[in-house]
Structures are given as C-alpha cells and as structure tokens.
C-alpha cells in the first residue's frame, strides 16, 4: 500500500481520536431508516446476482454496515478503514468478520478482485479534485458486472460545498455531478435515492447512488 495523502492521514488521525465515542453514536443504526435498508438490500441482491466476487465496505469505521451486508446474505464481505482504532473496534465487535487497515485510494487488491464496493459516507472527506482518482481505483479493483454503492451528503441545489462535519471537514455533492464523475471513471448508474435527514441527523439531505461497472472502458 502506498503512503496515504495528507488529507487521508489527517482524517485517519481525527477518527482515531474520536473512535470510541463515534462508535457509540447512532450514525449507522439502520433500524429507523427504511430507505437506506432498501438501497443496501438492492445493492446486495445485485452483487449476488452478478456473482462477480467478494464485497468490500471501504471506510467501514466500527463495522455495522459491513455486518449488515453480511446479514443480507453476502458471504464474502469485509471492511477496510484507514483508522487503526476503528479497525480494532470493528474486529472486537464483529469477530466473525474480516477487517483490514487500508487506504481506499490505493487498495491492496488485484485488478478485478471485487464483486462490489460500498462507500457509506466514506468519500465525504475527499477533496473534490482528488475524487476522480478514487473512482479510478474502485473501477480497477471491481470485476466486470461489479457494483458500487455511494452514500453521501447531497448539496440541495448548491455546487460542491464544504461543511463542518463532527470529525473533519466534509463535502456535500450535487447528485448529478457525482454520477457524472463516476461515469467518467467507467460506471453506469443503476439507481439513485434522495431522502431528508431523519431524527438526530438534523441537517443536510442524503444521497445514494447505485452504480455498476460499464461494459465500455472509460476514455
């Protein structure tokens, strides 16, 4: 694995510092979020139908979404996060699952090794100018027919907008612009979802994009 960029290192340090308290937050409690459960279920069904290989949650934090994907019937699912403290928490909470320290912009995986990738709010801290390289890496490690699910904060008619996230600066994206950026890297859109914030989320509309690897190579 190559040395992570400055913003990745800073983000990992910030999450290391708050990991225990962060794991106690209801951020990934899906029981009250039926729309989120629905798109995760659609992703899992698509990944199983494609049969293209294991599924990775990149930026898995303490692991609840990785575990939820396992519970949806994905047998080969594992989590990757740059924060060693988060990975320790995930391994302790879900000892039956595999979790690895790694950087999602330089994955220690062979070309075409994965059948699916979930990025559940894990691209939100990426500076916009660096995001195309992330999508190129996702495209590299996904097999033909592989799927990608993105969860992010949507900009609600504004351009790409930074905001003061609880842990580190994050960015809100126009859903069309994010879909276009993924398309340039070799993905085609399968579906999308926009929902209002729920309960303790308080602010910012949520966006989800379900994509799959295009049969046409990116230019």
TrEMBL record:
Keyword Transferase: yes
A Pfam entry, by short name: Methyltransf_25
GO biological process, alphabetically ordered: methylation
Keywords associated with the record: Methyltransferase, Transferase
Record keyword Methyltransferase present: yes
Annotated Methyltransferase domain residues: 55-146
GO molecular function annotations of the record: methyltransferase activity
Domain of life (superkingdom): Bacteria
Name of the molecule in the record: Methyltransferase
Organism: Streptomyces oceani
């Amino acid at each position: 694995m190559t040395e992570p960029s400055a913003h990745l290192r800073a983000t990992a340090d910030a999450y290391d510092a708050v990991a225990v308290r962060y794991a106690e937050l209801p951020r990934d409690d899906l029981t009250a979020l039926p729309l989120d459960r629905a798109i995760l279920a659609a992703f899992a069904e698509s990944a199983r139908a494609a049969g293209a290989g294991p599924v990775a949650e990149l930026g898995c934090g303490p692991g609840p979404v990785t575990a939820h994907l396992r519970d949806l019937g994905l047998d080969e699912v594992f989590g990757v996060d740059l924060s060693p403290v988060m990975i320790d928490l995930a391994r302790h909470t879900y000892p039956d699952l595999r979790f690895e320290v790694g950087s999602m912009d330089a994955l220690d995986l062979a070309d075409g090794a994965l059948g699916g990738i979930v990025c559940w709010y894990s691209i939100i801290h990426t500076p916009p100018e660096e995001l195309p390289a992330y999508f190129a890496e996702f495209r590299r490690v996904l097999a033909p027919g592989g799927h990608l699910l993105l969860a992010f904060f949507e900009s609600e008619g504004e351009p790409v907008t930074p905001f003061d996230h609880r842990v580190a600066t994050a960015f809100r994206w126009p859903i069309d612009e994010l879909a276009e950026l993924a398309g340039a890297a070799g993905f085609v859109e399968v579906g999308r979802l926009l929902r209002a914030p729920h309960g303790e989320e308080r602010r910012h509309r949520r966006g989800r994009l379900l994509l799959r690897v295009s049969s046409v190579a990116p230019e």
